[in-house]
Specification:
The protein is an alpha/beta fold. It has two domains: about 1-125 and about 305-370, Rossmann fold, CATH 3.40.50; about 130-305, Rossmann fold. Helix content is about 35%, strand content about 15%. The chain is built from twelve helices and 15 strands. It has helices at about 20-30, 45-55, 60-65, 100-110, 130-150, 180-190, 200-210, 220-230, 250-255, 305-335, 335-340, 355-360; strands at about 1-5, 30-35, 55-60, 70, 90-95, 115, 170-175, 195-200, 215-220, 235, 265, 285-290, 295, 345, 350. The strands form two sheets. Strands 3-2-1-4-5-6-14-15 form an eight-stranded mixed sheet, with helices on both faces. A seven-stranded mixed sheet has the order 9-8-7-10-11-13-12, with helices on both faces. A hairpin with a 2-residue loop joins β12 and β13. α5 crosses α6 (about 180-190).
């Protein structure tokens, strides 16, 4: 199979979908790899390294897209890439289609077979291709939150961990999954006072054990969220419903009750965000204010640390990519139910229930498309 690796063109997206070791493994398995020139530079990977691994370097994105049977990326295609869509093309990337109706329309119209990293689900319920970026985003959320709490950046002028004689900042984390757990580790490590709110009592028990009772764990409900946001300095939105729109846990009127100069970091923004006041931002213009509260809603946070992110991501994605290249989409899905869950669009149909429900579309089970 011919595997294509285009350069990412989303704002400040400097990750890449395949590293040289993956190129070598694909070549050894009998596949051809096309890499757009400079695709890896943001992640400190040179064209020479790709060539030494056996890739063909092409100067233009159109050549990579048009010649490849399987395109592997990091982020969802941008409008400039829509003209490259064609029937039967396999697209393996983060898609986050729930809030992206236009992209969904284009994939369906062009009959692209879109396999989304974020909805690949193993039989144990784990999300192996979302996990590494959730780990990065969770840790980054605390870093950027601490940065924007500083007065020169518009914040309240707080040091997250305080100092002897001065209280630390109050950090509230909505969701105790991968993002929330990693955010908790970072916030505790910096000395903050941390509260984690989650709807699963079992998960709260696990977090209490993991952190030896150092965090406050609370069952999620509207009243609890509202009361805790009144005293919060940093709030991290870390909720997820795989493939579907994130629930709006924080109402606009709740934001109005928060301290001026407080910060919210919405890690769920790829799926529409969990604050009613959230809208996607970029690394170029990462923040905006609502009622004096700083909102950081960058939809590709891990791109700020592309070397770490690229290698963490490709460690996870490559086994699935090799399976797709070796067997083709249909046979790979028959062999691996996890990959079947990842197929969001196929032959002009929406084949993921969460995407269909979020957009009010008809859902067709993959096994019934044909």
């Amino acid at each position: 199979m011919i595997v294509g690796v285009p350069r990412e063109i989303k704002d400040h997206e400097t990750r890449v979908g395949l590293v040289p070791s993956g190129v070598t493994a694909l070549r050894e398995a009998g596949h051809e790899v096309l890499v757009e020139s400079h695709a890896g530079e943001g992640s400190s990977i040179t064209d020479r390294e790709y060539m030494q691994a056996g890739a063909h370097i092409l100067d233009h994105a159109a050549d990579v897209w048009n010649k490849a049977e399987l395109v592997v990326k990091v982020k969802e295609p941008q409008p400039a890439e829509y003209p490259f869509f064609r029937p039967g093309l396999i697209l393996f990337t983060y898609l986050h289609l729930a809030p992206l109706r236009e992209l969904t329309d284009r994939l369906l119209d062009a009959r692209v077979n879109g396999v989304a990293y974020e909805t690949v689900v193993e039989p144990d319920g784990s999300l192996p291709l979302l996990t590494p970026m959730s780990e990065v985003a969770g840790r980054m959320a605390v870093q950027v939150g601490a940065q924007y709490l500083e007065k020169p950046n518009g914040g309240r002028g707080l040091l997250l961990g305080g100092v002897p004689g001065v209280a630390p900042a109050n950090v509230v984390i909505l969701g105790g999954g991968i993002v929330g757990t990693n955010a908790t580790k970072m916030a505790l490590g910096l000395g903050a006072h941390v509260t984690v709110i989650d709807r699963s009592l079992n998960r709260l028990r696990e977090l209490d054990d993991i952190f030896n009772g150092q965090v406050v764990t609370l069952a999620s409900n509207a009243w609890t969220i509202g009361e805790n946001l009144k005293i919060a300095d940093l709030v991290i939105g870390a909720v997820l419903i795989p493939g579907a729109s994130a629930p709006k846990l924080v109402k606009r009127e709740t934001i109005a009750t928060m301290k001026r100069g407080a910060v919210v970091v919405d890690v769920a923004i790829d799926q529409g965000g969990c604050f009613e006041t959230s809208h996607a931002t970029t690394h170029t213009e990462p923040i905006y204010l609502v009622d004096g509260v700083i909102h950081y809603c960058v939809s590709n946070m891990p791109a700020a640390v592309p070397h770490t992110s690229t290698f963490a991501l490709t460690n996870a994605t490559f086994p699935y990519l090799l399976e797709l290249a070796d067997r083709g989409l249909e046979r790979a899905c028959e062999r691996h139910p996890a990959l079947r869950e990842g197929v969001n669009t196929y032959a002009g149909y929406v084949t993921h229930r969460g995407v269909a429900q979020s957009q009010g579309r008809q859902w067709r089970e993959l096994a019934n498309v044909g």
